[in-house]
């Protein structure tokens, strides 16, 4: 009864069919055949793209630095296997647009030879700053899908004196089970990563939150965490989007993160279990982030599995390995079915954010037969952020984006609950993403026109000043000339007088 | 390879229920009360029901055709059929055919299509049509047939029913009478008190629907069961029906306790007229009710209070239609003032303050 009162009410949310049954009981496949060519985007994280420091033709080892991070928020990129650099050029990005972005193309030599950084004997003797440095140097970013550079988050945590580190093991997206398997198979390593993160943030309390539809993962993590009283493993209700960081923070700590504020400012920070595992590998084994576990699932997949693939592997190769029937595939989704994006083809690489690759059949997809909104308000009741999606969509439809912003467009987290529940099949999240992009574009256009106007005004003022200056110079010149002539005349007169005298 | 890209953003999966599924579920919930009403009032009621539904579909088709859109998918969404159905349930069962036709035209054309079709209307189409009919044709709209179930010897046969529906009712006084609420209103005006008025009243008959009244609203039992089933199916929420019925019951109880000779009991309120039909099927109309749960409670209470006030002190014996229309017009206002709090913001929309730790 106490727990009823202790835990705050979860707002909104939906209960989609989980579709994880088979995969959460099968081991992570680790013998993925090494691809001949890897395409490694320079931007696989939030922030600035990495800057390449290799040349075409260079020979590199697995885990060797290919591109260094630039700027405050950025992450480096490492070679996912050993081989030779073929090209550094623009290739289609794993994004719905598939527009080209800069990538390093690596031809693997099949040796898969590691380059590891030196490993400290006892990492807990390292300074917290050193932990952050090593995590940053290993190219670790949030592996839940947000891809925010982990080192930056550790630094912010240290600066703000975190009292709770939440490890997100909710994995609330349907289909996905990579975190579930990771927790079942590599619980000790994850817990070690959590301890290292606590050390890196100089904090002494962590909560691992796992949805109660993953009992095996919960027991594994609980027994792995037993020796460490700092780490509490807790079950949370199964409900999408439980893994939304702010929802989870509210549920676990009871604190609500104010808008426009980072969670570390209220003493909480949140990392994914996959990230904790990557931290363990970086600090204990000196290995950079060069591969990740990806869930391959969906109705068109012949052999669904959780598989560890090198970053930069083309989706087509992964799909071949998993016997995906492309004839049956109606939509390819990267990520989960609620928040993931659809991809136009399979010639795109997997990246650090790729938690899942789904080949969905027409039958699995939500109908795209759009009907008029009947104001059923389902979207209002499921929105975890407390928005009114139907009113926002109505305003966006008539291009009143300012009104949509006033209704809270910027507070939308694109979780997809509204699109999921809508009986009229209105693609609400698509509307909101379009509008958000359009609002930014308009602001930039306005900023640009203001800048242009300012430059024009400056130029006009400058020209006016110059013209004025010239006019004055001219006047001065004329005056000087007159003066000279007067002097000349005077001199001449004087000379005449003198000669007369 | 067939790649179905759109929409590009999630959710890529979703509930299977679509608009027509919802409409059909509502109609399914109406079937018991409708079948009972059709049986109770016999062939003339069946004629009126069919005429109303068919003309509703016809007007919808004409409007869609005028807009140059494909007719079939719009008719298949079931919304026009449902509006006409709900209207038919609120008509006097032996009303002439043109009441059904005019009512359908009012509901579909004036009530819905002129606003821009499904989802755009401000007022509930069925209630708009019913109130317009009541004001325009008060005699036809208050001629209540006696209970005359199908296949009973004194009930009209098929041929006679065509006369009633298509050329008008003869010998009106022998076959019609007043509803319970209407009778009470009339008797009150003669300065009678409730204990005299309700001598012949059967509470049980009224509850199961064995009474004069509109075609489908006499059986509180069947309508209530249909409504509860809809609630179980998740099509409607409890907020509007319970707050509406609750406010009527509370007000009626208070006044009945104060003076049981001049204020009818809450049970009589519940089992008479269209109260329960309105609570479960009309006021819960998605399009014309507020979006938030708190707003829905306010809306339901507003309807309940207005129904009680009109029934008790108004000129009309029944106030459900007026109450719903009035609250429909307040819905945009309710939605403007009652909205959910956005995560991380206060009720005014300003970011929360960072707590001092």
Describe the structure.
- The complex is a heterodimer of chains A (501) and B (357).
- Chain A is of the alpha/beta class.
- Among the domains of chain A are: 122-286, Rossmann fold (3-Layer(aba) Sandwich); 378-439, no CATH class.
- In chain A, 37% of the residues lie in helices and 16% in strands.
- Chain A is built from 14 helices and 16 strands.
- In chain A, the strands form four sheets. Chain A has a five-stranded mixed beta sheet with strand order 13-12-16-14-15, sandwiched between helices. A four-stranded antiparallel beta sheet of chain A has the order 1-7-6-3, with no helix packed on it. A four-stranded parallel beta sheet of chain A has the order 10-9-8-11, sandwiched between helices.
- In chain A, α4 (178-185) packs parallel to α6 (215-225), α5 (187-201) packs across α6 (215-225) and α11 crosses α14.
- Chain A is globular.
- The termini of chain A are far apart.
- Chain B is mainly alpha-helical and 357 residues long.
- Chain B folds into two domains: 18-177, no CATH class; 191-336, no CATH class.
- Chain B has 16 helices and two strands.
- In chain B, α3 (79-89) packs across α4.
- Chain B is globular and about 75 Å long.
- The mean pLDDT of chain B is 90.
- Classes of the chains: A alpha/beta (501), B mainly alpha (357).
What is the gist of this entry?
Chain A has 501 residues and is an alpha/beta fold. Chain A has helices at residues 2-6, 128-137, 150-160, 178-185, 187-201, 215-225, 245-253, 273-285, 315-321, 378-382, 389-397, 401-406, 417-421, 428-500, and strands at residues 37-41, 51-52, 59-60, 65-68, 77-78, 83-92, 100-108, 164-169, 206-211, 231-236, 268-272, 291-297, 305-310, 331-334, 341-343, 356-360. Chain A has a five-stranded mixed beta sheet with strand order 13-12-16-14-15, with helices on both faces. A four-stranded antiparallel beta sheet of chain A has the order 1-7-6-3, with no helix packed on it.
């Amino acid at each position: 009864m106490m727990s009823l009162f202790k835990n705050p009410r979860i707002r909104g949310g939906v209960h989609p069919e989980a579709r994880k049954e088979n995969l959460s009981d099968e081991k992570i496949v680790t013998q993925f055949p090494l691809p001949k060519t890897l395409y490694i985007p320079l931007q696989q994280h939030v922030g600035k793209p990495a800057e390449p420091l290799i040349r075409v033709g260079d020979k590199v080892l697995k885990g060797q630095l290919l591109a260094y991070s630039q700027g405050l928020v950025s992450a480096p990129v490492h070679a996912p296997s050993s081989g030779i650099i073929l090209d550094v050029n623009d290739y289609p990005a794993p994004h719905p647009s598939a527009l080209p972005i800069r990538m390093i193309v690596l031809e693997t030599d099949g040796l898969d030879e590691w380059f590891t950084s030196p490993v400290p004997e006892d990492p807990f003797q390292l300074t917290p700053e050193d932990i952050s440095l090593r995590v940053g140097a290993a190219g670790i970013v949030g592996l839940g899908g947000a891809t925010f550079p982990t080192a930056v988050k550790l630094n912010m945590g240290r600066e703000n004196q975190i009292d709770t580190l939440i490890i997100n093991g909710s994995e609330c997206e349907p289909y996905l089970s990579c975190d579930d398997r990771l927790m079942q198979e590599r619980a000790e390593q994850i817990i070690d990563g959590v301890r290292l993160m606590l050390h890196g943030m100089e904090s002494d309390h962590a909560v691992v939150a796992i949805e109660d539809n993953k009992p095996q993962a919960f027991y594994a993590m609980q027994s792995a965490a037993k020796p460490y009283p700092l780490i509490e493993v807790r079950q949370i209700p199964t409900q999408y989007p439980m893994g939304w960081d702010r929802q989870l923070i509210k549920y676990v700590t009871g604190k609500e993160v104010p808008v426009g504020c980072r969670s570390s400012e209220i003493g909480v920070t949140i990392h994914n279990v996959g990230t904790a595992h990557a931290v363990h590998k970086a600090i204990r084994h000196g290995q950079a982030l060069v591969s990740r576990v990806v869930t391959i699932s969906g109705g068109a997949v012949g052999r669904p599995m959780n598989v560890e693939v090198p970053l930069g592997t083309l989706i087509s190769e992964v799909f071949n390995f998993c016997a995906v029937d492309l004839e049956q595939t109606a939509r390819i989704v990267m990520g989960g079915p609620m928040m993931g994006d659809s991809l136009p083809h399979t010639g795109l690489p997997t990246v650090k954010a790729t938690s899942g690759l789904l080949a969905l059949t027409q039958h699995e997809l939500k109908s795209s037969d759009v009907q008029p909104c009947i104001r059923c308000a389902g979207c209002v009741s499921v929105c975890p952020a407390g928005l009114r999606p139907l009113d926002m969509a109505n305003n966006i439809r008539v291009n009143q984006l300012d009104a949509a912003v006033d209704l809270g467009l910027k507070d939308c987290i694109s979780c997809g609950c509204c699109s999921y529940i809508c009986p009229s099949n209105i693609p609400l999240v698509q509307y909101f993403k379009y509008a958000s992009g359009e609002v930014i574009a308009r602001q930039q256009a306005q900023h640009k026109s203001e800048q242009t106007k300012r430059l024009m005004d400056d130029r006009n003022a400058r020209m006016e000043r110059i013209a004025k200056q010239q006019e004055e110079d001219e006047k001065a010149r004329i005056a000087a000339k007159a003066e000279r002539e007067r002097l000349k005349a005077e001199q001449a007169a004087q000379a005449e007088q003198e000669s007369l005298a | 390879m067939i790649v179905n890209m759109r929409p590009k953003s999630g959710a890529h999966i979703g509930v299977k229920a679509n608009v027509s599924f919802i409409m059909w579920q509502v109609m399914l919930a109406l079937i018991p009360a409708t079948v009972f009403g059709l049986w109770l009032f016999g062939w003339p009621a069946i004629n009126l029901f069919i005429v109303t539904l068919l003309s509703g579909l016809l007007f919808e088709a004409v409007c869609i055709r005028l807009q140059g859109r494909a007719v079939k998918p719009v008719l298949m969404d079931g919304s026009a059929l449902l509006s006409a159905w709900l209207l038919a349930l609120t008509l006097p069962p032996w009303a002439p055919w043109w009441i059904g036709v005019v009512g359908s035209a009012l509901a579909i054309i004036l009530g819905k299509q002129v606003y821009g079709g499904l989802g755009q209307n401000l007022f509930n189409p069925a209630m708009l049509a019913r109130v317009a009919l009541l004001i325009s044709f008060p005699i036809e709209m208050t001629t209540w047939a006696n209970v005359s179930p199908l296949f009973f010897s004194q009930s009209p046969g098929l041929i006679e029913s065509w006369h009633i529906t298509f050329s008008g009712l003869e010998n009106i006084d022998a076959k019609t009478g007043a509803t319970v609420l209407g009778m009470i209103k009339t008797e009150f005006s003669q300065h009678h008190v409730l204990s005299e008025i309700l001598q012949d009243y059967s509470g049980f008959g009224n509850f199961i629907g064995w009474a004069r009244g509109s075609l489908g609203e006499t059986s509180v039992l069947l309508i209530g069961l249909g409504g509860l089933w809809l609630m179980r199916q998740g099509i409607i929420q409890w907020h509007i029906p319970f707050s509406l019925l609750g406010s009527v019951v509370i007000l009626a109880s208070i006044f009945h306790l104060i003076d049981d000779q001049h204020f009818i009991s809450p049970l009589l309120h519940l089992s008479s007229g269209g109260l329960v039909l309105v609570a479960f099927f009309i006021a819960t109309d998605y399009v014309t009710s507020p979006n938030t749960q708190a707003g829905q409670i306010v809306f339901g209470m507003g309807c309940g209070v207005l129904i009680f006030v009109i029934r008790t002190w108004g000129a009309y014996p029944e106030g459900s239609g007026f109450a719903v229309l009035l609250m429909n017009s307040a819905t945009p206002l309710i939605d403007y003032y009652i909205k959910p709090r956005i995560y991380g913001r206060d009720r005014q929309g300003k970011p929360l303050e960072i707590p001092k730790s």
